Amino acid sequence: MLRSLYSGISGLNAHQRMIDVTGNNIANVNTTGYKSSQVQFNDTLSQMMGAGGSPQDGMAGTNPAQVGLGVRVAGITANFSQGSAQTTGKSGDMMIQGDGFFITRSGNENLYTRAGSFFFDANGVLATSTGEPVQGWTAVDGKVNSAAKPGDIRMPLGATIPPERTTTMTLKGNLSSDNIPDVNDPDNYGIEGVPADNPGYTTTIPVKVFDEQGGTQTVTAKFTRTGVNNTVDPPVSSWRVQLLGEDDGDPLTPLPPVGDPVVLQFQNGKPVKDSAGAEDDPENVLKTITVGAAPATYTVNLADVTSYSGTTDARVFDTDGQTAGALTSLSYTVSDSGEIIGVYSNGLKQTLGQVAMATFKNVNGLEKVGNSLFRTTVNSGYAQVGEPGSAGMGQVISGALEMSNVDLAQEFTNLVVAQRGFQANSRIITTSDEILQELVSMKR
Questions:
Q1: What is the pLDDT of residues 190-203, one digit of tens each?
Q2: Residue 256: per-residue pLDDT
């Protein structure tokens, strides 16, 4: 009789734990990065009333007879399934899409979290909303050494980058192979030297460049149509390139030439080094030329320049070089690999650091320590640290947070189940009590 009382008590305790866990899940339904928990029950040790026997002497065997002694909580496990994304638009908010945890520091101990609501404090340190520094790697000259031990990530406010002179230009577009590239152009003279006093059809492309001190000036690339050689197969179309210096403001003064002109030859619409070479030989493809004169020499990339019939629309697609810049504000973006990219005053973007990520062999072995943080235990395994997006680690989504993965419908169902279980176990106690009362009443 007393066994049933204690079985009922164990059932009450177990279902009370289930209600506690379910209530905590519901309370954290809007907690960033929260992972719901579930309770598992096991029966306790059973008392042997009769042992099993083997068949013998024509008699059948007997099964063991046992009376259970109640229920116990076998474990409480967390559900680490992916939570939904909540878009915030804030650069410091980061969400992990996939496996892994952000690494934070509390004193000398590393803690781990899925809640990616971060900000840069007054010292330029990336930290959580509760003040733990986020761990990763601070870049040096825009380079991140992810093989080093992770540490605090610092925003180098006030850092400067030096100016760089323009050395490379990239051209794209078409230089017409027609004898008369544009019949509607009154200044179009066709091919240079045909007839003898013909200066040739020209097109100019202004290019903004930087000097060694970061100053800007405009040079002009002048392209002149010089001829077509039909004596070879396929025919060769030629243009001459001359770099011209900066305009002195006098409209009567021509732009000064800088360096010697360079002749471009095209076969089948592509620039070639030697018109006598094999047209399909990759070694004969002209990829770059050098124009100008020291110290203002420039390498021109011709990989995307053609010479086909039609209009001339060649243009400068890109140049290198920059003015001096400073990091004067907390303007930054975060890539899917966790790189923090700052924007300098000259518009240049440079990597400032990268957040680190950790995975574990057994995430259910982690211990919750509050503030949406986890601590390693002997059963979680060591943290495997690396870059986001590598070695099975998730990617970082900037401007979003991971919502709680609590399923309210499931939790309300669990509440009903736990409540009914609690009620049923309370009936065990009241029924056992009534039977004991009847037993006591037998003696009047």
A1: 777 666 666 778 88
A2: 81
Mention every residue, 6+ apart, whose C-beta is less than 8 A from residue 23.
415
| Euclidean distance between CA atoms 170 and 166, whole angstroms | 11
185 vs 44 pLDDT, higher one: 44
Of 197-211, 303-317, 361-375, 404-418, the one with minimum mean pLDDT is 197-211
Burial of 242 by CB count in 10 Å (0-12 exposed, 13-18 middle, 19+ buried)?
A: buried
Cα separation of 51 and 417, whole Å?
35
Beta bridge partners of 168: 299
> Does 234 sit behind a cis peptide bond, omega within 30 degrees of 0 on the bond before it?
yes
More confident of the two residues 404 and 217: 404
Q: Which two tokens stand for residue 398?
A: 């900037």
Alpha helices in 244-350 (DSSP H): none
Query: In sequence order, what are the residues at sequence separation of 6 or more whose Cβ sits closer than 8 angstroms to the Cβ of residue 294?
Result: none
DSSP state of 18: H
Give which of 385, 329, 340, 294 is closest to 110, Cα–Cα: 385
The Cα-based distances of 363 to 299, 303, 381, 406 in angstroms read 54, 51, 8, 18
Beta strands per DSSP E along 311-421: 315-319, 325-326, 332-334, 339-343, 349-355, 357-359, 367-370, 373-375, 384-386, 395-398, 400-402
DSSP β-ladder status, 94-97 and 395-398? antiparallel
The predicted model gives 289-314 an average pLDDT of 85
Least confident window among 49-58, 283-292, 345-354, 419-428: 283-292
